[in-house]
TrEMBL record:
Entry keywords, A to Z: Acetylation, Fatty acid metabolism, Isomerase, Lipid metabolism, Peroxisome
PANTHER family (UniProt xref): ENOYL-COA HYDRATASE
Pathway in which this enzyme or protein is active: Lipid metabolism; fatty acid beta-oxidation
SUPFAM superfamilies reported for this sequence: ClpP/crotonase
Protein name: Crotonase/enoyl-CoA hydratase family protein
Localisation: Peroxisome
Gene Ontology CC annotations of this record: cytoplasm
Matching InterPro entries: ClpP/crotonase-like_dom_sf, Ech1-like, Enoyl-CoA_hydra/iso, Enoyl-CoA_hydra_C
Annotated Pfam families: ECH_1 (PF00378)
The organism of origin for this protein: Pontibacterium sinense
Chief localization: other
GO molecular function per UniProt: isomerase activity
Record-level GO BP terms: fatty acid beta-oxidation
Family, similarity comment: Belongs to the enoyl-CoA hydratase/isomerase family.
Length: 279
């Protein structure tokens, strides 16, 4: 499929989604909010990919929400009885939140490779990814308070779990830019690279390492780590035991050991595609 805001390719079990509106600083217009979750879900449903890389073209990763989304809202949103207006607005925000929630819900890890500015809604997006890498010229800006609103698509909920809560509050309250060096120091990004080419080259190597592991083991690891983030240690250990009791089979382990002894590469079965429920 073709998309207005990005290209999507698959090579060696790595899905590469690349934002491609550099003249508009890869801002997120109305088509983006429709296409991104559809594209991510299609990757998950097909199950050919074992890892997803999100990068972009041009000077900046993304300037966040496109102004057209603010300037051309659905006119019915602000019409009629106030309680129903508010319910409609709440539902709209939840629909936009779901566009980034899908990055956590998808069965395979999501890696983001960031150059230049990562602003507003783009910070919401990368916070929902499993891993973040950036170039030395990158910066991150929770810009919403500067515009007169609160960030509402995940940054305020996810960033305090990724970095020190006090620093997350500082960034959100002040809307100041966090440069790449600071993002690395506080643990928001895994690594900083001199330029975009070297970043993408190494990110693809990391993605390839993930793709070579058992897809069942990787998806179980992702799901259990996400569960542990949102629950107590005791509850998370119980869930881990339940996952192992239900999902663990020795097939992939035996294949791994056999490949090691034979000095070959294991060829794991992929995850099953998502099919329509039986009716």
């Amino acid at each position: 499929m073709s998309y207005a805001n990005f290209s999507l390719s698959l090579e060696g079990h790595i899905a590469h989604l690349q934002l491609n509106r550099p003249d508009a600083y890869n801002s997120m217009d109305q088509a983006f909010w429709r296409d991104l979750p559809a594209a991510i879900r299609s990757i998950d449903e097909a199950a050919d990919a074992r890892v997803i890389v999100i990068s972009s073209t041009g000077k900046h990763f993304s300037a966040g929400m496109d102004l057209e989304v603010f300037s051309n809202p659905n006119p019915t949103l602000f019409q009629g009885e106030r309680g129903r207006q508010a319910e409609g607005m709440r539902r709209l925000v939840q629909q936009l939140q779901a566009c980034f929630n899908v990055l956590e819900e998808v069965r395979m890890p999501v890696i983001t490779a960031i150059q230049g500015g990562c602003i507003g809604g783009a910070v919401d997006m990368v916070c929902a990814a499993d891993m973040r890498y950036c170039t030395a010229d990158a910066f991150f800006q929770v810009k919403e308070t500067e515009l007169g609103l609160a960030a509402d698509l995940g940054t305020l909920q996810r960033m305090p779990r990724l970095i020190a809560p006090g620093l997350a509050r500082e960034l959100a309250y002040t809307a100041r830019k966090m440069p790449a060096a600071e993002a690395l120091q506080c643990g928001f990004v895994n690594r900083v690279y001199d330029d975009q080419d070297s970043m993408l080259a190494e990110v693809m190597q990391i993605a390839q390492q993930i793709a070579e592991r058992s897809p069942l083991a990787v998806t179980g690891t992702k799901q259990m780590m996400n569960y542990a983030r949102d629950h107590s240690v005791a509850d998370s250990l119980t869930m881990m035991a339940t996952w192992q009791a239900g999902m663990f089979q020795p097939t992939d382990m035996i294949q791994t050991f056999t490949a090691k002894m034979g000095k070959t590469t294991p060829d794991y079965e992929g995850l099953r595609p998502v099919t329509e429920p039986l009716t």
